[in-house]
Amino acid sequence: MKILPKTRVLLAVGLLLTFANVWEGESPIQSDLPTLSGVSKDSFQRIELTQSGQKILFEKEQDVWFIKSPVEAKADQARIKSLLLNFRKGISMDVMVEKGNEEEYGLDASHSIVVELWSDSSEPSLSFTLGNDSARGSSFVRLSGDDAVYRARMGGRHRYEYSVSDWKNRLLFDFKESELQSLAIESPQVSYTLNWSGELWEIKPKPNWQLNQGQTRSMLARIGATRIGSTWKEPLERSDVQFQMSFRDGTEKKARIQLSDVALIEIGQERYRASVSIFKKLASDPSFFRDKQLYRFNPRSDLDTITYETEGQRMVFQQDLSNGFWRVLEPIGMDIDMKQVFFMVNSLASAQAISFVSEPLLTPRIQLSFQMLDGTQEQLDIGEEQNGMYLARRGTETFLISKELVQKIQQAFGKTF
Hints:
Elements: H1 5-23, E1 35-36, E2 46-51, E3 54-61, E4 64-69, E5 73-74, H2 77-84, E6 91-92, E7 95-99, E8 113-118, E9 126-133, E10 139-143, E11 148-152, H3 164-167, E12 180-186, E13 191-196, E14 201-204, H4 213-224, E15 230-231, E16 241-247, E17 252-259, E18 263-267, E19 270-274, H5 277-284, E20 303-310, E21 313-320, E22 325-330, H6 338-349, E23 355-356, E24 366-372, E25 377-386, E26 389-394, E27 397-402, H7 403-412
Antiparallel strand pairs: 1-6, 2-3, 2-8, 3-4, 4-5, 7-11, 8-9, 9-10, 10-11, 12-13, 12-16, 13-14, 15-19, 16-17, 17-18, 18-19, 20-21, 20-24, 21-22, 23-27, 24-25, 25-26, 26-27
Helix pairs in contact: 6-7
C-alpha cells in the first residue's frame, strides 16, 4: 500500500507529540530506579531530622514518642504517626532528574532536611535528604550514598519541617478515658461531677435520668484528645468555666477557661487557644450525657406482643418464638407485611429520643404497647407532629422522636397519618 506524503507527515507529528508527552522536559524514565523499602510504623524506634545544622531527635519509649534533643518533651503523637505512615509501603523514585545542581531543588545544606529512621538495627532503616516539593504531590529527594536527584512521593515537605515547639505534644489535657477518675465542671449555669465508680460513670448531683455510658466515655475521650490551636500570652479576662480532673494514679489537673469565639484555657502558668464548641456544651447543660435510648430489649428473645391503638381501632401482633415470625392476633383475618414489622421492631429496640421537652399535655394519636415475655409492659404514646418530628411520651417523660420512626410504625400496621 502506498503511503501518501501528507500521511507520512501526520504520522511523524503524532510520534513527536507522544514522545514529548512522555519526556515532560526531564530525563527519560528509567526501569531500574531505586526504591525505599516499606516499613511498618510500629517498627521504628528512633527518628532524626536535621535541617540547617539543627538536629531533632525522637525516641520511642513504651510505644510513646518523645523528643530527646535539643529539648526533652513528649512529642506530638499524631504528627509522628502521620510522618511514619508514609513509609508503610515501599516508595519508588518516579524519575531521576539529574546529578548535582542541588540548590535548584532545595537539596543544598541550607534548605534540605536529612531524614533518618531506625528500627532495631545500628544503621538507619531509611535515610534520605528531602528538598523542595515538586508538582503533582512529589518532592525532590536524594538517597543516602547516591548523588542523583530524584523525584518521589514522600508525603510533602510540610510533614518534616516543623519547628521543635511544633513537634511537642499538642494535646491540651492529654489523657485517655480509662485514666480519668473524675471530672468536675463548674460554670455560672451548672455545677456537676462525672465520677468513675469502678464499673460505670456516674454524675453528681444525681439527676432523675440515666447516664449514657457510651456517650460519656466518648465525650471524656474527646476532652482528653482536644488539640491545642496555639499558645496564648495574655492573661484571661474572666473564668467562664472551670475543670478539675482527678486521675486514677492520684494526680490532678485544673483548668480555667474563657469562652468566646474560641476557648482560652489556662493550665498552671500556661495558656492556650482551642476550639470552643466542646467547652460551651459542657458548661451549659449536663443533660448532654443523658441516655436517650427509649427501650432496651432483644427483639427476638424478649418481645411477646405489640398492640397498636388509635381512636376506634386496635391491632395486636404476636411473635412466634419458634421461628421469629409475627402473626396477627387482632383483628382476625388481617394480612401482615413481615418485612415492615421486622423494620419496626428492630427500630424500636434501638430508638432514641431526639430531645426531651417540658410538655405537660400530650393527646395521643397512637398508643403502642409492648408485652414482654417476662411479664413487664412498656407503652409509647405518640402525639402531634412538630417541625418534622413527633411529640411522644413514655411514663412521665415527654420527648421528640423522628418522623422516620413513626413512619416505620405506621407502615408495619398498614397505616399512615
